[in-house]
Structure formats: C-alpha cells, structure tokens
Amino acid sequence: MSMSVFQEKLKMSVNASNSLLCVGLDPDPNRMPIKNVFEFCVGLVDGTAEYSGAFKPNLGFFEALGIDGLTTLKRIVEYIHERYPGKLVIGDGKRGDIDSTSSRYATALFEFWDFDAVTVNAYGGRDSIQPFLNYEDRGVFVWCKSSNPDGGQFQGKRSQPGAELALFERMAEMSTGWNENGNLGLVVGATYPAELEKVRELAPGIPILVPGVGSQQGDLARSLRAGMENGFANILISSSRSINYASVEAKNFSQAAGKAAKMLRDEINAVLSDISHH
Question: Residue ranges of the domains in the chain?
C-alpha cells in the first residue's frame, strides 16, 4: 500500500533529523527561566531542532496567557515552518465536538494556525472527528489511551460484561476503519506499555504519538518495541517538561534543552538499533 501524503510528511520529518522524538512546547511562566514566551519557545526550538522529528505546542499553555499567548503561538508556528521547513508541527488541543463545531475547530487549527497535525478527542464518535480527517494532507491523532493515573476510569472499562475489548481497545480497532485518507494517528501514553502493545496489535499501520516519556516516567524501551512494525518504527515519542525545563538558567536553557533532546533521541536510536539486531 502506498503512503498517504501525511505519512510521507511524517516520515520525511523523522528521517531529516534521524529522530522519533517529538518536542512538546509547554511554556509555563512559573517555570520559565526568561519572561518572554516567544523567546523562550524560539530558544527551545533552535536548541532542539537538530534532534527532533516534530514539535508539539500544547494549546492550553498558550491559551492560559490570553491574547498575547495566542499571538505568540501564531508566531512560533510560523517561525518553525519558515526556519525548519518540513518539520512537523502538531497542535495539541484534544479538540472534539459535534460535527458542526468540529468543522470550525478544524478550520481554525489547519487554516488559521496552520498546524501539520492535531490531537483530537473522539468521544463523540466518527462524525465528530471527520471534519479534521477531511484535510487529507494533515494528521489527526485521536486520543486513545491517556497517560494520567485516572485514565483507566473510562478507557479501561468494557462496554458491557463479557465484552472482549476495553473502550480504548475498541477505539483503536474502530479507528482503522476511519483512516480512509491515511492521515489518522493515535495518542497512547508511555506510562501504559502493555496497553500500547494492544493498540499496535489492533491498529496496524497507524502512527502512534506517545507522550509521558520523561517527567511522567513512561517506559521508553517497551514503548518503542510496542510501536515497531516490520522493522519500521511508526511512532513518535513525545517529551515536554523534561526538555523545556532542563535548565532554569536564562543563559543556557536553550543549550540544556538541546542536550536533553539529544540524549533522549540517542537513547531512542540505541533501543531501535538493539531491536533491529535481535
């Protein structure tokens, strides 16, 4: 089967830096070593671009800063696209609603913000995320299994007694039928590697975005093994806080972020090379 436009984009972005690392941008004024959010994000982007396959601005952190935060987000997405063409920018906002509202979200995220991919919440079923999927050249990562402690309260439940699949497994299985444009992905937290293995089994060929490595202590090696398919790692490992706040010093936060990103990228590649040799 030939690759879709989005899968090609993803592969090129990953190959350009030989990296499955996705660097999240979570600017928190209480932790930032400098006050200017744009300069902080540029420092992170420039420091880590060489080692990252994608960037993932977390919309909540920018929205919390009001109008200035939104202006900064627009500028940072433009900056990445201009300075590092081909590098994927994923808007992480977990949007999702009935289709009429989702279509407005999709317009905003893909046309105004110009994200290459987004994260969405598919609690409303297929028609609630179809407006996103209609943008064939953009990626749509469906929130499948979250990395937080209470994620299992709904996601881990069976829809009825005796049902074979838990809700997150059903989501993974059904999503393969929604992937007509080859632009659907899944979000599965690294804190639950057994669940990630199950998702990969139920959703072959679908890229998986894996947050929770780093500050949430997800299991990197097991996550990578779970994401592998036919020797191809169809997976992005996302890390935010442990890279963003590798240093609290204004003078070297960018270099420190780069160092942390390089370390994680090299660790990922060491695991991959280990897998391919066994």
Answer: 5-276
Prediction pTM value: 0.95
Between strands 235-239 and 117-120, the pairing is unpaired
Give kind and range of the element (H or E) at residue 177.
helix 167-178
Angle at 205 between CA 7 and CA 201, to 5 degrees: 155
Task: Give the CATH superfamily of 5-276.
Answer: Aldolase class I (3.20.20.70)
Strand blocks (E) in the chain: 21-25, 54-57, 88-95, 117-120, 139-145, 184-188, 208-210, 228-229, 232-233, 235-239
Q: Could you give the percent of the chain with pLDDT greater than 70?
A: 97
Separation between Cα atoms, residue 106 and residue 118, nearest integer Å? 9
* Residues designated catalytic: 94
User: Which residue, chain included where needed, has tokens 């899968």?
Assistant: 7
pLDDT in tens, 185-228: 999 988 878 889 999 999 999 999 999 776 555 688 888 988 88
